Amino acid sequence: MSSKGTILITGLNGYLAGRLAEAALRAGYAVRGTVRDLAAGAEVQKALLGLGSGGGAEVVHVPDMTEPGAFDEAVIGCAAIVHLAAPVNETWTLEPSEVVRMAVSSTTGVLDSALKAGAQLRSVVFMSSAAALFDVPPVPGVYSEKDWNTTSEPAVKELGPDAGGLHAYCASKTVAERAFWRFRDERKPAFSMTSIQATYFIGPPLVPWKTKEQIPYSLSNVWKLLQKEDVPGPMLLYESSVDVRDVARVILWSAINYKVADGERFLCASAVGGAQATADILNKHMPSLGAAQGSPGQGYEPGYPSTSGMIAFDANKAVQETGQDWIPYETSIIDTAKFLMQYLEK
To answer: What was the pLDDT predicted at 89?
Structure first.
């Protein structure tokens, strides 16, 4: 075990989790992760061992994160817990109320287990979402950590199965985060508690997706342009994005700087570009790809500020607290494109 301690990451095989595990290992921490599928966990272990950081990851099998005591074994001895696991894949297949139940049960379950982790536990960080900040349908404006979604939970309760996947996702993130903060207010744990909200992830993952069908929606603009498609239309709800490596950095900072981060929400949103900006960046830096031209320079602001657009985000708090700015948008797009090129032949 590292002298700095062990960081537990739930949902170790996720897009963000791999980058967080990498950052934690490079910072000198040991990593333990929970997975529903041991084979997926083994893929992450292999990638982490190949980093040359002298580390790896211990994997704990948690087949059902909603079961009481599911995380009891995994949390023992940890210095920090980062709860990333969420019922994202079930959002569009299960009834909305069940998606919300799973998100809340896993979150409160992690916190209940955290009380049994030991006196060395200093921090619990919860991965929420920008979806917990604005109503659906959203009202135009600039959102920050002070805002909350107020419409999705009532919609799930009132409309039941007809609420749909969007309300299910937004409600699950909002209600789970509310439960997270309620636990802090009512139980007053000795460990610090911090939540993170983020917009669409871009940037390369640590572990490649096995098939091109697994490429997430947040990378669809880059992927479509690599396939020589026309410049895509608008993303769902908003165009804001953030490099997944930056989100991992803010999470790790929150876990390490637990006294400063205690009781805080940190929004991660670095840039607003969109499909046309993506096309322009690819044509500027990787012209041999022959990406669609569209209407160059249209539909986005120079510098890609996160506060631009109808639904925008002010993430300055995270920049000020961590003392580090976001990875430049063009860098993220180029890195994403280079990574995704491997799927063009599959």
So the answer is: 79
